[in-house]
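Recap from last week: sequence in, structure out.
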Amino acid sequence: MDQTQSLFDNTRSLAIDQLHAATALYTSTHVVTTLLERLDWPNQTGDLLDPAAGDGSFILTALKRLNPATLPTTIDRIQGWEIHEGAAADARYNVSEYLRQHGYSKTAAYSTANHIIINKDFLTDGPAPKRFRFIAGNPPYLLFRRLPEFFQTIYKAQIPKYAIADILHSFLDACNNLLTPDGSIALICSDRLLFNANAANLRRTIGQTLGITHIARLDPSTSFYRPKRRIRNSPPRVHPVSLIFSSLATGSCRFPLDGSPIFPDQIDRADPAGPTLKDIAKVSIAPWLGPAGIFVITEDIATTLANQGATLIPAVDTDDIDRKSDLIRPATRYAIHTRRKEQPVEAVSQHLLAQLHRMPKRGQNRCHWIPPETINLPLDRPSLLIPRIAKQLRAIHLPPGVLPINHNLSIIQTTETSLDEIQAILLSDESQEWIKRNAGRLENGYFSITTTLLRRLPVPSKYKDKAAPKS
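Predicted structure tokens:
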């Protein structure tokens, strides 16, 4: 083996270990059993594939559901792929031990287990051209940007753009390409696949051939027995769901995939009857202006720059909200307001040039005086600030001239429904329950509240008569 090949192998091995450490999340037997029962495995004809076998929980459970007396002729119906050598060894051992309990010799059991569990990269090597009627497993979920650099390079060259945002997307797309025309894919996975915007193109693409026949939430504290990078016996940092995708040709799909978000707690995606928040108010996202100290400055720096002709706007974030009263405190920071075609005063230029080395790449612009995102909220009117990450929907009054920042949400009145009434709608029990059913779940009871979500919020009936455009 030459040095180049050895270096490649070492880099790959390290990357696989890193990937495994970040995604190893094994499924409890009772969850696997329920999913296989929904597939009616093995009563239906066809072979079964686990694309990310781990230590073999899906494969072993599927194997145990076969009639032991028929194993020599039916065992070829099962196949599992696992990229991590140690996990593949565990899976092979578990399978071989089961086979030995049912009459296989040690040599035959080990040989058969090696045949069933394939220690290769499913995304690059895959079992094609073989097709499977059933694909079941708990594939890894990890954002592409968090993958080891080795895999980012390899996968970027091979995986379609619509499936590259998360490795879970890549696995689902690859599974779809291996499915028979009457097949089904049963997954335990993160719920973000269903509603995140970065999965919209994936949902739209696979929706040309697949629909969803089953959705159910799972309890993370009981569904896994090796939580991902967590203290032993603590729940993993995911919100898992059980999903079954089936070929449209089967005619059994309950939920079509068209790119629209699907919310597991309210799987009826029909638009609400009557007006929604977008019909009575404008919902916008507040700009991100970069790290503190560049375009967002403290009061002492603001005073100095204002005295030299700088244009400044009072700026607020969620840490400016009084927790007891949910009222905004007086602003203690200011946003530097600049215009693209007009250079700022010298003091502002000097300040920005001295601080811009701290600006992340995603916030850099050709003109040093232009912030990462444009300040375009209508500041001449009062508004409501909606924290984008919260345990419940909150709505805080902002006076005119105050700028919310850091991707919190901003709401202004556009109809006869007053800002106070809009606040009452947002804080109502109906709205709080709707948000809990529809918002993306984060850790520790927090929800992700987006502009798209808020615009869909139904208006309670007592306000519907005011949900008409202002003349």
